[in-house]
């Protein structure tokens, strides 16, 4: 094996629900596809459910779609029901928001892992993601292009929108 030539992906492996749909079509992994998976894990932690539930009603079978639907109306309804409402609302909204940004439809609008960690630590703020369509005609700023949105003057950011 010639290590100087670099690595090459020959087959992708992943678990349904965690794998970026773009990876399936392009057959290429990337930082953005890893961040998508991170977003799914963040949502899984917040919601207390698996990304795909085959026996669930169609509108609830895919966690990401279910959270996107709830996010526009009642985002905290996506929180793990086993918590019985005993959680910090700002932290839960932050985790849900980070998960949605990381699993954004458009890979170039996803957060970097550094940005996600800054927001989760409340060191930066984050706008609510546009969730209306997979290819939204609305411009939602990327975090790299909207550095001003990530900086706060007092160190405590409102990442709930």
UniProtKB/TrEMBL annotation:
Keywords: ATP-binding, Cell membrane, Glycoprotein, Membrane, Nucleotide-binding, Receptor, Signal, Transmembrane, Transmembrane helix. InterPro entries: Kinase-like_dom_sf, L-type_Lectin-RKs, Prot_kinase_dom. It is found in: Cell membrane. Residues 1-126 form the Protein kinase domain. GO terms for biological process: defense response to oomycetes. It holds the Pfam family Pkinase. PROSITE patterns: PROTEIN_KINASE_DOM (PS50011). GO terms for molecular function: ATP binding; protein kinase activity. SUPFAM superfamilies: Protein kinase-like (PK-like). It is a single-pass type I membrane protein. GO terms for cellular component: plasma membrane. In the N-terminal section; belongs to the leguminous lectin family. This is Protein kinase domain-containing protein. It comes from Lithocarpus litseifolius.
């Amino acid at each position: 094996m010639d290590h100087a030539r670099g690595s090459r992906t020959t087959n992708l492996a992943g678990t349904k629900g965690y794998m970026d749909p773009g990876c399936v079509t392009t057959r290429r992994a990337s930082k953005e596809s890893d961040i998508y998976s991170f977003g799914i894990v963040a949502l899984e932690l917040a919601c207390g459910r698996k990304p795909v539930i085959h026996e669930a009603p169609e509108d609830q079978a895919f966690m990401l779609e279910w959270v996107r639907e709830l996010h526009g109306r009642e985002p905290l309804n996506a929180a793990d029901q086993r918590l019985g409402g005993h959680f910090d609302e700002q932290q839960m909204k932050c985790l849900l928001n980070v998960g949605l940004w990381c699993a954004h439809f458009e890979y170039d609008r996803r957060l970097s892992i550094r940005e996600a960690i800054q927001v989760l630590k409340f060191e930066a703020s984050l706008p609510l993601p546009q969730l209306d369509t997979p290819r939204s005609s609305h411009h939602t700023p990327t975090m790299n292009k909207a550095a001003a949105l990530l900086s706060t003057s007092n160190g405590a950011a409102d990442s709930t929108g």
